[in-house]
Amino acid sequence: MSRRPLIALPARFSESASALRYRADVTARALAEAVYAAGGEPLVVHPVAPGAVVDDAEVAARLWYADGVLLPGGGDLAARWAGQQAHATEYDVDEEQDAFDLAVARHALGTGLPLLAICRGTQVVNVALGGDLVQDLGERTHRHVVQEIAVEPDAVLAGIVGTTPSISCYHHQGIGRLGAGLRAVAHAADGVIEAVELAGAQGWYLGVQWHPEDTAATDPAQAGLFRALVEAARQRALV
After folding, report:
1. Which residues are within 8 A (CB) of 20 and not within 5 positions of it... i.e. 6 or more apart?
2. Is 211 a catalytic residue?
3. pLDDT in tens, 185-209
4. Active site includes 169?
5. Catalytic: 171?
6. How far apart are CA 170 and CA 221, in angstroms?
């Protein structure tokens, strides 16, 4: 394949950004760098879902070029999408962003586009598949935490990061009831689900609750997650 696989990366809305005069569409530089270092071409997508209403067909048409998708972290997903009540700790909710991300998840899963979901992205996929969230982990602190987790030995994830990787976490919510077809394949010591895989997925899918981009530049195991996404995208592009 002569070109880099194209990895669609939904932007995050920002009220301010260095060197920009107004509100911005942004992505984490570490995410873009990790995708690029893995051989992919990260392409940031502007989220559009006015009034939190989304046209799935339009989203699909806009992603015509994508060989793969990366659903990144971000603020909390509005509790209502999972039929839940908002918690007092909920922050940075933007329902236009939510609706767009949910549509991207449905498109990727429905068409077999390789999909790596990170932190909030993993929660989006879980909700898109009918699951719900632990709205606040309470005393189970997962903010600014580097910890070792346990990965199921038979999981695809284990072949990428091993069975006891050290991970960088920043989240106060977590996966509650698993969405249809999802399997928890990694847990923190306190029982919090840290990764999921999807049985019978049309294409490659992996969801991690931590932030592999934090350490991908120095940790080959974490960089391996982005290489796995790009390789799956490469294979799809060749079909």
Report:
1. none
2. yes
3. 999 999 999 999 998 888 999 999 9
4. no
5. no
6. 18
